[in-house]
Design a protein that fits this description.
Structural class: mainly alpha
Strand content: under 5%
Number of strands: 4
Radius of gyration: 20 Å
Largest sheet: 2 strands, antiparallel
Number of domains: 1
Helix content: over 70%
Distance between the termini: 35 Å
Shape: globular
Length: about 325
């Protein structure tokens, strides 16, 4: 899953905790600064769906919703240790938005895992893209964005028709992935607000030096990752009843290691890379880069799960990919 392709502009702030979060994220960005953005995004897509393929292997032992919750919980722990959101001050509005974002994020992941337990990975990812394409079509102002939803819907109909021939569980998979698409649309809307929020210092943060210049806080990085850490924690807590089915993971270190791999590959790495990419490319370029994801999922599904697309399924994947490209806003001429 990826976040909203619209990144916030850097916002000035007088905060120490926010600047510290931005500095930590900035150091991580610097490590990848020499790698082309499309290459980073391709790596992100491959790791994300490689994690999903690893999760698929766990479904015979642990139910898909439980695996999804474990992924969220482990990723939340990693992000908490990295971003330390308790060092920021949270007003009521920002906290409620972040909490809603976390619940939507968790619900999106749970429904997605239920879907890939019944559908090929590439098909599920392509159908799920109906969510962000619909958001672009609804919020867009051009005919091209309206056409995108028509093209995407055609691709989804093809993929759904093929999937229904896979067996009785396909209906469950299609319903689950459409639910996931709806939550992804909500994730985009709420994710924009969380990503643009500027962290404020908490009470435990020491006073700034009187002669020090006001730190510049990148709202997309400082607010995005800090907000994501808290959001995933809230999502994990809301869906904590699913932990009742996690017994086998606690009894087998190999299963536990697989869960950690799923969390790192499908959540920590993609979200971290996404923050780097969104700081380096325009919204239009980022939207085009999203088109890499259905293809990445299809490749991972073929290589790791032997789910080879063919015939009309390839046409459906191509249509969805084309619809994603159509949602990219046109480049503004340089002035």
């Amino acid at each position: 899953m990826t976040a909203d392709p619209t990144s916030g502009d850097p916002a000035p702030g007088g905060t120490v905790a926010g600047a510290d979060a931005a500095a930590r994220a900035g150091r991580a960005a610097g490590l990848a600064g020499r790698v082309p953005a499309p290459a980073l995004f391709a790596v992100s897509g491959v790791t994300q769906y490689a994690g999903a393929a690893v999760a698929f292997g766990l479904f015979d032992v642990v139910a898909a919703p439980v695996v999804a919750w474990l992924r969220i919980a482990v990723a939340a722990l990693v992000l908490l240790a990295w971003q330390r959101p308790w060092r920021s001050r949270w007003d009521r509005r920002r906290l409620l938005t972040t909490a809603a974002f976390g619940v939507v994020l968790a619900a999106m992941n749970v429904s997605f895992y239920v879907a890939i337990a019944h559908l090929p990975l590439g098909t599920a990812v392509a159908v799920e893209f109906i969510g962000p394409v619909a958001v672009a079509a609804v919020t867009g102002r051009t005919a091209r964005e309206r056409w995108a939803i028509v093209v995407a819907f055609t691709g989804v109909v093809l993929l759904a028709g093929i999937s229904l021939r896979l067996g009785p569980g396909a209906v469950t998979g299609l319903v689950a992935i459409l639910v996931a698409a709806g939550f992804w649309a909500g994730y985009i809307v709420l994710g924009r607000r969380v990503a643009r929020a500027v962290p404020r210092p908490g009470a435990a943060t020491g006073p700034a030096l009187p002669d020090a210049p006001a730190p510049q806080v990148d709202a997309q990085t400082g607010g995005g990752l800090v907000g994501l850490a808290l959001a995933m924690t809230i999502g994990a807590l809301v869906f904590a009843p699913l932990a009742a089915g996690a017994g086998p993971v606690l009894q087998d270190w190999r299963l536990a290691a697989a869960v950690v791999a799923v969390a790192v590959l499908s959540s920590v790495v993609p979200y971290g890379v996404e923050q780097v990419v969104m700081r380096r490319v325009s919204a239009a370029t980022f939207a085009v880069l999203l088109a890499i994801l259905p293809a990445s999922a299809a490749v991972v599904g073929a290589v790791m799960l032997h789910q080879w697309p063919h015939g009309l399924e390839i046409v459906g994947l191509a249509l969805v990919t084309g619809a994603i490209v159509l949602t990219a806003p046109p480049r503004r001429p340089a002035v």
